[in-house]
Amino acid sequence: MSTLLVLVTAVLLAPVAVARIKRTDATLTHEDGAVYRGDQNEGGQKHGTGRYTWKEGSFYDGQWKNDQREGMGKYTYPSGGVYDGEWKDSKPHGNGTYTWFVASLC
User: 61-76: per-residue pLDDT in tens?
Assistant: First the structure.
């Protein structure tokens, strides 16, 4: 009599908390004149993808998580300089490229 051995492999995944996006194309205007256009979570926070424009002319296009710049994004300074890369806790973090605008002195 032969015996059949069956090997069962199971992969257990930890539950992942996902913030649900409430709506897209929301527009939020702040008292200081800054404007956000993009996704929000159910709590009304910037979450998903969107663009935030500061009154002085700088802007950020990219990913947001719970009101923080998080993931891939591009920040453009009023001078024309750009940081394009990874963000964490609203700060450049990880891989990215700075490009500075240099005016001609002549």
Answer: 999 999 999 999 999 9
